[in-house]
Amino acid sequence: MSDDMECPPLPPTRVRHRGHKIDMKGRVSALCFSRPRAIDLQRATWVMRDDGVTCPKCRALIEARNKTPNAEVTGKPDVGTELPPPAGGLSG
Ligand SMILES: [Zn+2]
Predict the structure, then answer these.
(1) Deepest in the core among 59, 70, 82, 88, taking most CB within 10 A?
(2) How far is the CA of 59 from the centre of ligand 1 (A)?
(3) Ligand 1 centroid vs 60 CA: distance in angstroms?
């Protein structure tokens, strides 16, 4: 009797995109897709962690995004750009 089992064949390596958008049906679009569409999970998969991404296009986009300083909008307007109040109209 031999327990010398062979390793099961590994599934073909699928490219791992960076998950980007999820539609109402739970289908995930990749960061590198120019327009949102569901990833074909037979051929690829997706991750939410940047360091698990193997798709070169997604990686390039992630790195480009990380290099951009202060890309996030804070939601606060700059101080000192207050507009003057609208002129007149309420007298009388
Ligand atoms: Zn990708």
Answers:
(1) 59
(2) 7
(3) 9
